[in-house]
Amino acid sequence: MRKLLRFLLILFLCLSAAASAQQGYKPSESNLKAREHFKDMKFGMFIHWGIYSTLGDGEWVMDIKKIPYNDYKRLADFFNPQAFNAKEWVDLAKRAGMKYITVTSRHHDGFSMFDTKQSDYNIVKATPYKKDPMKELAEECQKQGIELRFYYSLLDWGRADYAFKSPIVNGAPEKGDWNSYINFMKAQLTELITNYPGVKGIWFDGHWDRKNANWHYDEIYGLIHKLGPDIMIGNNHHLAPIPGEDFQAFEKDLPGNNKTGFSGDAKIGELPLETCETMNGSWGFNINDRNYKSVKELVHYLVNAAGLDANFLLNVGPMPNGKIQPEFVDTLGKIGAWIDKNGETIYGTRGTVVKAQTWGTLTAKAKTVYAHLLNPVKEGNQILIPGFKVKPKSVTAFNGGAKLKYKKDKTGLIVHLDQLPADEIDRIIKITY
Ligand code: FHN
């Protein structure tokens, strides 16, 4: 009975989200091309940056520490990131092997990190900095051939028209002015798409705050696709994709897992996949969070995501002065060094060739398969790639090229590992056929 109720609830949530979706959406040729390119890129940098960084306590600090909105707003008075340098950020992303950047243009605190005519609560009007870092970033990304995407929060803790915590009645908050809020978002999204060169994606977040509201996705997604048919829309609503979306976002979980509890309702759909994760435990700068993930953990995340055909969006939370903290810079440099050597086995590959195995996972490109041995091999010095049907032309160690002995039988391909060099992070076998 409880299972049935849960199923009905999920169905209701999906249907109510889909009801306002861009029904009948047919992606343009350029959008389909963008999706393939997106899948090829594999690795991106997520950036959570806002006035909250001044408190060094993450991007939820206003809500968690119960700071009244009007007091929180004062943070803008002393947000002055004099050391921000777009070139440094883009250089770092490139050095790490990342091919795109997704940056918070406006998070749940409602502060716009870009020049907007729709609200004075923005970095140009409300801070002593007075400049638009998103403009600089967009221009630098274009210069260096990195794609730029904007994170955009649907949830707003402060605006009167959003009326945070107001109950939803007939798809809209009882208090506030829902139409005004939807129009505000549409106007800001228009600015983000038309004023910043080369924007390739919009990453929505916050839907889960109002699961049963009518978000007018038909209008919002329709507008975005009208302004930029190739712009890819993703929405971290923790549900299966709804019509009008171009990629499916997962948070802190590989597709198919649900360690966070966010992905329970998110069946894997047909769209390109992306999963995001933090370098410590925080999205926004957190001065007290020293729970840094190791290079090995993060490379494994990237490889496992690729094995599941998903991109990996790895987050940094820049400091209030605009710099990215040295611990992140160091780790990203080391990930970049790994990718320099092994990028062939990641970029442009596709996953889910064979299901992940206890020893690791597989990626594939044209007539080549890469087996990534991420974990110790359990029995004997060999692995089985189950269901491998074709006859290999060559089976070699990716690193050094040593020939590996193999046998094909009805269970799949058995590869002997004696000649496969040891590696702390990933022992890769290259199989051509
Ligand atoms: O609440 C946000 C959080 O601050 C962060 O932006 C992450 C990124 O995936 N998404 C939300 C939680 O689902």
UniProtKB/TrEMBL annotation:
Residues 15-344 form the Glycoside hydrolase family 29 N-terminal domain. Keywords: Glycosidase, Hydrolase, Signal. Pfam families: Alpha_L_fucos (PF01120). InterPro entries: FUC_metazoa-typ (IPR016286), GH (IPR017853), Glyco_hydro_29 (IPR000933), Glyco_hydro_29_N (IPR057739). Its EC number is 3.2.1.51. Residues 1-21 form the signal peptide. This is alpha-L-fucosidase. It comes from Mucilaginibacter defluvii.
